[in-house]
Specification:
759 residues, alpha/beta, DHBP synthase, seven-stranded mixed sheet, binds zinc ion
């Protein structure tokens, strides 16, 4: 029979995932000759053989691909027959201008975990075991194509055994770039404030001993340092909180197995899948009434963040200690995670009792990702290790390369190129100098890896955001300033491939409005190019401006004054007895004159105000705490509601009158109704407001697609109810998928708005 030859260019995540050996084996199986090689833009295959064999070979590529490969496209081309005898893997070919997708880091696979616990295996108890199906990727890559000399593994020369695995196409470690073993690979060291450093097994034993004794160990992980302690030891957890200056905010816990996790939390099927996925994220799970976790791990919270081990080092620590371990980012609050040994020793000097270090460098910092499942939907809270830098697929091809610098808190950036939106991993809060350096460094890396030189730059309209100042200083030919909530809504629409107008509901804490006031309870009729603000929550003064964010009682007072005027003081509320009279007088004056007290329509502040008013929380230790505790204390069985109304003037956005809500709450307080009931009625009312307002906009405009975005939707009670009720009313719903609902998701929206306006 006649022979034929084809050339296939395969794009996607196809390097560092065992793709070439897979192609090699497939070619053997189907009696196909030719070659496979890595290039700067993907994998190229030339295959020659009888037509029926070639067809079978080609059609098996996608369905049989290795588990961590993501094939985006296969472009075929007919070639002249060359008469190759066998099939070979050719050396990689660098193409300086081409780019390709990069695999995120992958949790230890079952095969590698089994080897680590097999006393007969040469990798028995080796903490850096990996293969083509698992191990570090993005955290060690300096440039593409993905070959060992372009990673931080370049300083470790493979021993003969590892090299034999690396060169054998039938081995699980064929071209596994981080391949290593106890003979040739990275090694553990343990140092403490006193005593000699220990290495290898002794280092691990010292760390285990310390953890069992209730001490705090800083361990160098995959994307940076983590701080670990015994999660069942309340004194240990409290000590960690004090030293890290992290008060109140829940800490994540790592358990050895899913069964151990199930003793702490309720886990449904979707949550189980997420917990044990190759990304191994922190998943927020509902706690059992009595769990073995110390009270100080997640005070005042019915949920706890759980993750499973994702490196061999974690597997060993969890098994050897036999304890659930608190596992939190190795930083002081709000700083980026520490990555280098010297940096970890210096920055965590006052936090850790001992350091478990190793000599494989971390090129790119990564925090642990955080997700939850709400009403069957995956809600991304922190997109980090395991997820970035896998891009969002755009429903268009970018004509110009765009950089969007994101917001201020939970910052990410986004680069648009061709059909992709590369949204960075979670970077952090930009007010911090170290975070800002992390931002710049990560941006340079993304630009280099994906070969992007932005022609258009997008930023938030806020005059004072560090990210916006950075963007303006770039002096790009085109700079587009995008309104914060418009960015939220467009980001959600683009993730869903949606181009047309939507009713965008953007409920969050703070965003700079086009009128210079602080927005945050917004209904926008929006598309990628622009928006109309069609409705918003009634504004109140924010006494002292942003300082009110940490002091919800200030916003509560502003609401009372807004509703009752001076008469608020005679209401006889408990809340008033908790206020300092001198401060109250100042706040009253600020509300009256507007001095340093901008107007806000923020939904986040509305939740804060109610939380404080009903005695749940007056001041906060971390962002969102007042609203979270309000949600936790609300009784799901309660079905009552409060009244609300609309104030409309022609040519103006509808204003949602929240006065009746506050009056209803005050009445309930005076009638001594419990917090659980008031909280539940409040949640139901906010959900009603959202659904009814969407209904009004639909009646006026005929638009029936709703996009939900903004940090307030991290509230599972509210989010679940709004989703359910909007569906019942037959709206088409767009929800965030890969990106966070909070400000970590806005960079994509900024980029797409800028691209739309600039092309
Ligand atoms: Zn593996
Ligand atoms: Zn070796
Ligand atoms: Zn926002």
């Amino acid at each position: 029979m006649a022979r034929e030859r084809i050339r296939l260019l395969i794009k996607g995540v196809v390097q560092g995932v065992g793709f070439r050996p897979f192609v090699y084996q497939l070619a053997q199986r189907h009696d196909v000759a030719g070659f496979v090689l890595n290039t700067g833009e993907g994998v190229v295959v030339e295959a020659e053989g009888e037509l029926k064999d070639l067809e079978r070979f080609r059609h098996a590529l996608k369905p049989e691909a290795p588990p961590r490969a993501v094939i985006e496209s296969i472009s075929p081309r007919i070639m002249h027959v060359q008469g190759d005898a066998g099939f070979v893997i050719q050396p990689s070919l660098a193409q300086p201008d081409e780019f390709q997708l990069v695999s995120p880091d992958i949790a230890t696979c079952d095969d590698c975990a089994a080897e680590v616990f097999d006393p007969a295996d040469r990798r028995w108890r080796y903490p850096f075991t990996n293969c083509t199906n698992c191990g570090p990727r993005f955290t060690i890559i300096e440039d593409m194509p993905y070959d060992r000399p372009q990673t931080t593994m370049k300083k470790f020369e493979m021993c003969a055994d590892c090299k034999a695995e690396y060169d054998n196409p039938n081995n699980r470690r064929f071209h596994a770039q981080p391949n290593a073993c106890p003979v040739c690979g990275p090694k553990l060291t343990f140092v403490a404030k006193s005593g000699e450093p220990r290495v290898k097994e002794e280092a691990l034993a010292a760390a285990v001993e310390m953890l069992q004794a209730g001490k705090i160990v800083a361990l160098k992980g995959l994307g940076g340092f983590q701080l670990a302690c015994d999660a069942s030891n309340d004194a240990a957890v409290k000590r960690l909180r004090e030293r890290k200056h992290r008060y109140g905010k829940p800490l994540a816990v790592m358990t050895e197995t899913i069964e151990d996790a199930a003793e702490i939390c309720f886990i449904n099927d979707a949550e189980r899948d997420l917990l044990s996925s190759a990304e191994r994220p922190i998943v927020l799970l509902r706690r059992r009434p009595k769990d073995a976790v110390a009270p100080s791990v997640a005070p005042g919270n019915n949920y706890i963040g759980i993750m499973l081990p994702y490196t061999p080092l974690h597997h060993l620590l969890l098994r050897d200690t036999g304890l659930p371990l608190v596992m939190t980012s190795g930083n002081l609050s709000e700083e980026p995670i520490a990555a280098e040994n010297a940096e970890g020793l210096r920055r965590l000097d006052h936090v850790a009792d001992g350091w478990l270090l190793h000599d494989r460098d971390i090129y790119s910092r990564y925090d642990d990702p955080v997700l939850r499942i709400v009403a069957g939907h995956r809600v991304m809270i922190r997109r980090a290790r395991g997820y970035a830098p896998y891009p969002v697929h755009l429903p268009f091809k970018a004509k110009k390369a765009v950089l969007a610098v994101g917001g201020e808190l939970k910052s990410t950036f986004c680069l648009l190129k061709e059909g992709y939106g590369f949204v960075s991993q979670h970077i952090g809060d930009m007010e911090n100098v170290e975070t800002f350096e992390h931002f710049e460094r990560t941006l340079e890396l993304y630009k280099r890896l994906f070969r992007i030189s932005p022609e258009v730059v997008a930023c938030d309209m806020h005059p004072e955001y560090f990210s916006s100042k950075f963007a303006r200083d770039l002096k790009a030919p085109i700079l587009v300033e995008v309104q914060h909530h418009h960015a939220h809504v467009v980001s959600c629409a683009v993730e869903n491939g949606w181009r047309d107008q939507v009713i965008g509901v953007a409920f969050d804490g703070t965003g700079y409005g086009t009128d210079g006031t602080i927005w945050g309870g917004e209904f926008l009729l929006a598309d990628w190019a622009g928006f109309d603000r069609v409705a918003h929550l009634k504004q109140v003064r924010l006494p002292g401006g942003e300082a009110a964010v940490e002091k919800p009682y200030r916003t509560a007072l502003a609401y009372l004054i807004s509703v009752y005027g001076d008469a608020y003081a005679d209401l006889g509320l408990d809340f008033l007895s908790r206020l300092d009279p001198v401060e109250t007088e100042i706040l009253e004056r600020q509300v009256a004159t507007g001095l340093l007290s901008p107007f806000t329509s923020s939904a986040g502040r509305f939740f804060d105000a109610v939380s404080s008013l009903i005695g749940v929380r007056d001041t906060i230790e971390f962002e969102g705490q007042a609203a979270i505790e309000l949600e936790m204390q609300s009784d799901e069985a309660e079905h009552g509601r409060y009244e609300y109304g609309y104030l409309t003037a022609s040519g103006q956005p509808s204003v949602i009158d929240t006065d009746p809500v506050i009056k209803g709450i005050v009445n309930d307080l005076l009638n001594c109704l419990p917090v659980a009931v008031i909280g539940a009625k409040f949640h139901a009312t906010v959900a009603d407001i959202i659904v009814a307002t969407c209904g009004r906009v639909r009646a006026e405009t005929g638009v029936r697609t709703v996009a939900l975005s903004g940090g307030v939707f991290q509230n599972a009670t509210l989010y679940a109810r709004v989703i359910k009720d909007l569906r019942k009313q037959e709206f088409r719903l767009l929800l965030h998928k890969e990106l966070p609902v909070n400000d970590g998701g806005i960079s994509l929206g900024q980029a797409v708005v800028a691209h739309t306006l600039a092309t």
